[in-house]
Amino acid sequence: MIELNEVTKSYARGAEELQILRGITLHIAEGDFVAIIGPSGSGKSTLMNTIGLLDSPTSGSYTLDGVATEKMSDNGLAELRNRKIGFIFQQFNLLPRLTATENVELPMIYAGIPAKQRREQAQRMLEKLGMGERGHHKPSELSGGQQQRVAIARALAISPSLILADEPTGALDSKTGIEVLELIKELNQQGNTIVLITHDHHIAVNAKRVVTLRDGEIISDLRNEMQLTPERKLEGALS
Ligand code: ADP
Ligand code: MG
Q1: If both were cysteines, with which of 7, 86, 157, 229 could 60 make a disulfide (CB 3.0 to 4.6 Å apart)?
Q2: Ligand 1 environment, Cβ below 6 A
Q3: Do residues 180 and 20 make contact, with C-beta atoms less than 8 angstroms apart?
C-alpha cells in the first residue's frame, strides 16, 4: 500500500542544508499496524507528513495504493489525501466552533458527500466510538478522551485506506491513553492499515511492526512477535 523509496527531505538553513530524512525506504502492506518510534527531532512527524501527503519529499519516490505521487499537482495530492487518509493528532485538532457531528462531517464535505448521507455517516461513526449521545457537543464540552474519540470518528468518516496517528495518546492521561490505544488496535483488527508515530516504547509494543528512526534514518525494522492478541491475553489471564 505504501512504498517509500530512498525518500529524503531537507531544508535550507542559510548556506547550510539541513537533512531531516536521509534516504527512507519503507514498504507497508495493507492491513498492517506499524509504529514509528524515535526520539524527539528524529524526523517522525516529517515522515508522517510525507506519508500523509501533507509535505512532499526533496528526492525519492512515494507510491500510495499504486499511485505514484511525485509528479502530482497540489490539487491532485489533496484529492488523494482526502479520499485515502485519515489523520489522528496529539492535540485532536477539532474545530472549536463546530459540534462533534460537524467535525466528523468535515472530511465528508471535502469528499463531496451529500448532506443527508454525511449526517447519517457521522452519527454511525460517533456511535461506533461510543459517542453517539454527544454529537451536539462542542469540543470544549468534552473531556480529552472524548475529544480524541470524536477525532478518531472523523478520521474514519471517509473509510480511509490508511490511518495516520501522530502521538495520539500524548495529551491524554494514561488510563484514557490505553483506551484510545485499544480503539486503534480494534480498528486494525477490523482491517484498517495503521501507522502510529510515538516516542514511547510502551505504546510502540502495541503495533505489529516497529520501525525505529534515528536522525532521519531507519535503524531497525522489527516484526513484533509479542503483540498481544486477545487470545494471548486470555491465555495470560488463565495461566
Ligand atoms: P519528531 O517528530 O521526530 O520530533 P520532526 O520531524 O518534527 O521530528 O523534526 C525533525 C527535525 O526537522 C527537527 O530538528 C526540526 O527542527 C526540523 N524541521 C521540521 N520541520 C522543519 C521545517 N519546516 N523547517 C526546518 N526544519 C524543520
Ligand atoms: Mg513529532
Answers
A1: 7
A2: 11, 18, 20, 38, 40-46
A3: no
How many C-beta atoms lie closer than 10 Å to residue 224's C-beta?
A: 16
**How many whole angstroms from 154 Cα to the centroid of ligand 2?**
21
Residue 78 in grid coordinates? 489533496
Question: For residue 177, what pLDDT is reported?
Answer: 87
- Return the ligand number nearest the Cα of 167: 2
Give the residue among 195, 185, 127 at the shortest CA–CA distance from 161: 195
SS3 category, 49: helix
Closest ligand, as measured to the CA of 168: 2
Q: What is the pLDDT of residue 233?
A: 54
**For the whole model, what pTM was predicted?**
0.89
Asked if residues 34 and 185 have their Cβ atoms less than 8 Å apart, the reply is no
pLDDT in tens, 155-204: 999 889 899 999 999 888 888 888 889 989 988 998 999 999 999 998 99
- Nearest-CA residue for ligand 1 atom 27 is 11
Query: Locate cell 536522525: which residue?
Result: 215
User: Tell me, what DSSP letter sits at residue 140?
Assistant: G
Phi, then psi, of 117 in degrees rounded to 5: -65, -40
